[in-house]
């Protein structure tokens, strides 16, 4: 009998990817589906783009559903998990990818922008992990991967909100990893470098050139390269890796 799970390390698993309608999250959803997982494609405002991701996964022979939820909203996250459990039965892999960027130096950054950034990166990671852990614990297996940023570990003037949220997300990752290490659940982060997405599209040519000069590998990342890092940590073979950060950044944080 041929092994139907060969080359598909996540066969039989269910993955929830937040913010999977576009950019890095889209690439993660496609990659985890290619690795055999059924995927919940979460989005906030882009139903058509989420449907495109679901259609691409279905066209490749996989299974996916699109689920709308603002992952910074506790009630919406409860509904999100209820729908994923109803439609896909479980959550084995949670990827906390949704994020927004609002820049501004300390005296120019609106309180509402600070709150929105913290709520969407850090708050959502807490809310989703809080719902995922009991499901994973009951299954005796789980993977939580959060998408970090160079701003979590390096200084970028104008990134006080984004850098604070991303740094705190790493603190959550380490503490949660220690909490659930005995339950078969690993908790890690992937730290992407510079990726051409809608989030980075508004950067000026000057900023873009400055960033390009700071990447030792000499180019931006393909979203699929970030997804490969997530897939590595999500795989059963990575059971002994927890509480850590995997840079997929072309050396930008060196
Ligand atoms: P993006 O292209 O702007 O896409 C953001 C995604 O997040 C979209 O799918 C969006 O959904 C979703 N989203 C935003 N707010 C949400 C909310 N409240 N609830 C649910 N979904 C929400 O961003 P990206 O560049 O792919 O970034 C993805 C992650 O990587 C972020 O955490 C970002 O901080 C991180 N990152 C990016 C880079 C980079 O260079 N691009 C570098 C390091 C880290 P809708 O389409 O429905 O709005």
From TrEMBL:
InterPro entries: KR_dom, NAD(P)-bd_dom_sf, SDR, SDR_fam. It comes from the Bacteria. Residues 13-226 form the Ketoreductase domain. The keyword Oxidoreductase applies. The keyword Ubl conjugation does not apply. Keywords: Oxidoreductase. One of its GO terms (molecular function) is 3-oxoacyl-[acyl-carrier-protein] reductase (NADPH) activity. Its EC number is 1.1.1.100. Belongs to the short-chain dehydrogenases/reductases (SDR) family. This is 3-oxoacyl-[acyl-carrier-protein] reductase. It comes from Paraconexibacter sp. AEG42_29. The lineage of its organism: Bacteria, Bacillati, Actinomycetota, Thermoleophilia, Solirubrobacterales. The gene is fabG_11.
